[in-house]
Specification:
With 320 residues, this protein is mostly beta strands. Helix content is 3%, strand content 68%. β12 (139-149) and β13 form a beta hairpin. Keywords: Cholesterol metabolism, Chylomicron, Cytoplasm, Heparin-binding, LDL, Lipid droplet, Lipid metabolism, Lipid transport, Lipoprotein, Secreted, Steroid metabolism, Sterol metabolism, Transport, VLDL.
């Protein structure tokens, strides 16, 4: 069953679609078989999987009870008109023929506000999404999508906002966030542009937490042209892998830093990387570390460069 409606008046344009019905999930009962495989260039093998049922083994059978599921879907969009107008002056030079009157300006309607709403409901999961683009003193875009479910891993929230400010130059700011039982993340970025300077900054962080892996990631990037163009960047990754079924573990850290400076008279860049790992594969231990530093300086009279690299490793016979 479905319904549709639409409308248009002096203030807004909108449309709505609604659908409800049933879905057949019988395909989840089809058994899956995955053969044993040997990883290339190693003695490691993946386990053999036979007659694996997604419907029974993942717990869907306990939550949903039946493969026949009903659902409701709704989509709504709306455009709110803006009565303001942009004025573009024009001039006509028509010497070869006469006209009674000519327009001196062109009027273009200003952009209004746009919104979009989506929802889906079933016995397994409920999804909601809202998107909006707003033309106010600043131009702002915003979206939010989320879910609720009888399965914790299917619940999430993803939200983002981006704004463009036109006061004393241009400034674009963006923020994103994601939350889930297994994954979390945040991203923030800002770009500012004025007649005398440009600045930019980006920060990203992520966290992964699943039964066999824990990982943290962070990245920062900054740059400006205040006294001289400069850029700096840093990346950090920390991880911990533990798979009892494969008798394998891995823990480690990676750090990377980069800085750059530039003027018409010289150019300079420096970078450093450090990393280490320790663990075991099928109860065979291994470890390794690496450290590197590099720098370059260049001007009209000379060039200087240096590179330093150190590394160490220990592997207990997992290679053919």
């Amino acid at each position: 069953h479905h319904n549709f409606s639409a409308g248009n008046n002096e203030n807004s344009v909108e449309a709505h679609i609604g659908i409800n019905g049933e879905a057949n999930l019988d395909f989840l009962n089809i058994p899956l078989t995955i053969p044993e495989m040997t990883l290339p260039y190693t003695t490691l093998t993946t386990p053999h999987v036979k007659d694996f049922s997604l419907w029974e083994k993942t717990g869907l059978k306990e939550f949903l009870k039946t493969t026949r599921q009903s659902f409701d879907l709704s989509v709504k969009s709306q455009y709110k008109k803006n009565k303001d107008k942009h004025i573009i002056p024009i001039h006509f030079y028509m010497k070869d023929f006469q006209v009674l009157s000519t327009p001196s300006d062109i009027f273009i309607p200003a952009m209004g506000n746009i919104t979009y709403d989506f929802s889906f409901k079933s016995g397994l999961i409920t999804l909601n999404t809202n998107v909006g683009l707003y033309n106010q003193s600043d131009i702002v875009a915003h979206f939010l999508t989320s879910s609720s479910s009888v399965i914790d891993g299917l619940q999430y929230k993803l939200e983002g906002t981006s704004s463009l400010t036109r006061k004393r130059g241009l400034k674009l700011a963006t923020a994103l966030s994601l939350s889930n039982k297994f994954v979390e993340g945040n991203h923030d970025s800002t770009i500012s542009l004025t007649k005398k300077n440009m600045e930019a900054s980006v920060t990203t962080s992520a966290k992964v937490q699943i039964p066999i892996l824990r990982m943290n990631f962070k990245q920062e990037l900054n740059g400006n042209t205040k006294s001289k163009p400069t850029v700096s960047s840093s990346i950090e990754l920390i991880y911990d892998l533990n798979s009892p079924k494969l008798y394998s573990t891995a823990t480690g850290r990676v750090n990377h830093k980069l800085s750059l400076e530039s003027l018409t008279s010289y150019f300079s860049i420096e970078s450093s990387t450090k990393g280490d790992v320790k663990g075991s594969v099928l109860s065979r231990e291994y470890s390794g570390s690496i450290a590197s530093e590099a720098s370059t300086y260049l001007n009209s009279k000379s060039t200087r460069s240096s590179v330093k690299l150190q590394g160490a490793s220990k592997v207990d016979g997992i290679w053919n």
